Amino acid sequence: MSSGETSYRERKVISIGTVSELTGLSVRQIRYYEERKLVLPHRTNKGTRKYSFTDVERLMEIANHREDGVQTAEILKEMRKKEQRELNKAGLKKQMLRGQINAQFQRGRP
Amino acid sequence: MSSGETSYRERKVISIGTVSELTGLSVRQIRYYEERKLVLPHRTNKGTRKYSFTDVERLMEIANHREDGVQTAEILKEMRKKEQRELNKAGLKKQMLRGQINAQFQRGRP
DNA sequence: CGTGTAAGGAATTCTGACACG
DNA sequence: CGTGTAAGGAATTCTGACACG
């Protein structure tokens, strides 16, 4: 709604080999987590996967959960819940901001 | 001095093909600018180049200068001057901060 | 000086599959 | 279920060199 330019954190520019080094996961594991919908890399014209730093962080979280023996289906559910909580939080902030702006108008001080 | 973790902006994780797409420069051009010391990518064990977003921005600046017919040697000088100015600025900030902290101590309110 | 291109080789990535468990 | 691996092919990257200007 404001910038237009995606931030560095979310730009999908990292290839799978680099992601493997960054996360310590094998290329096979990274592809498998995509199959299970845990990460959604961008695909270039020629079909190669590109990841963002956000994806890398997400993969590290997944790695931690897997180490604890959590199955991919569970991890997926957890992450979806978490995202929902974050959306709510963002929505709440927006509401409060709107409230403040309205209050300003009421007092006749735009 | 504080974090230890490099920020996303400076992490060298982007390969040359992607940089080419991001900047609109040819791979040949990007390699040539390295030869002329205008950009300094990281080299992996196997010798492939990895760039940061900062490098990408720098390359776009280079592209602009080249469009204006500026030679690489000139661009290099300009960029070095600019960096020097930025280091000075950072140094000045640090000095001022130190001054403020000292002032607090003088008043006996640490 | 700055950039394109063909050359030959090494390393990457992709998919679908079999293996183990 | 989650991961390794060999298979075959396509695309990437690297270097040194010749070309043009």
From TrEMBL, chains A, B:
Residues 13-81 form the HTH merR-type domain. It comes from Metabacillus lacus. This is MerR family transcriptional regulator. GO terms for molecular function: DNA binding; DNA-binding transcription factor activity. It comes from the Bacteria. PANTHER family: HTH-TYPE TRANSCRIPTIONAL REGULATOR TNRA, REDOX-CYCLING DRUG-SENSING TRANSCRIPTIONAL ACTIVATOR SOXR. InterPro entries: DNA-bd_dom_put_sf (IPR009061), MerR-type_HTH_dom (IPR000551), MerR_fam (IPR047057). Keywords: DNA-binding, Repressor, Transcription, Transcription regulation.
